[in-house]
Amino acid sequence: MTKSKKIESFFDHFPPEVAEYCFQLWQDHPFDFIVSKARGTKLGDFRYSPTKGYQITVNHNLNPYAFLVTYIHEVAHRVTYDIHKSKVNPHGNEWKRNFYELFEPILDEELLPASLVHVLKKYLQNPAATSTGYTPLVNVLATFDSQPAIGTRLIDLEEGTVFQLKNLILIKGKLRRTRYICQDTQSGRNYLVAKNAYVQPQEPLA
C-alpha cells in the first residue's frame, strides 16, 4: 500500500487535523495496525509476539477523538515495550511519561476541541490504565458521539441494582478501582464491569 493510500485510511478514523501526525507515529514506531470490531471489554490493545512482532488494535466504532486517545494510549505501550520489554509495569511511570510525550505535540486548541484539550491536560498528568476510568474524559469524549449512548451509566446506579448488559442480567456490587464487581443472577458468576459502562436498569428481583 502506498503512503497516500495509508494516509487516506487514517483520515477515515482520526480527526483530520491530527491524522498525519498519527500516521507519522506509525512510521516512527512500526506495528501491525488493525481496526477491530467493537469489543465490550476493551477499546484497544497492544501485543507483542516474537514471530508476529508488534500489533495494535482499536475498535472501529469509536468516534474520531475517542479513537485518537485509544490509539496513542496503545502506541505508548509500543514505545514503552520497545525500551523496557516486560521489565516495567504496563501502566507504570514509563508508560505514563511516553503517553504524555506522544500526545503533547497535538495538545493544541487549533488541532483539537478546546474542551478536550482542557480535560486531556489534566488526565495526562497521571493517566489511568483505561480512559474509561477517568469520568471527565469519558464525558467530554461522549459529546462527540454521532448518536447518544443508550441506557444509564453503571456508576450512577445504586449498589444492588439489577441491570442488563448485553445478554447478561447482573447485580451491581462493590467498586474495584475503575470497575464494579457484578454478579450474574443466573450463574452466580462475578464480572468486572467498567464504572462508566452504559447499562439497562431492570426491575428488582422478586
Automatic annotation (TrEMBL):
Native source organism of the sequence: Aquirufa avitistagni
Protein name per the record: SprT-like domain-containing protein
Source superkingdom: Bacteria
Lineage of source species: Bacteria, Pseudomonadati, Bacteroidota, Cytophagia, Cytophagales
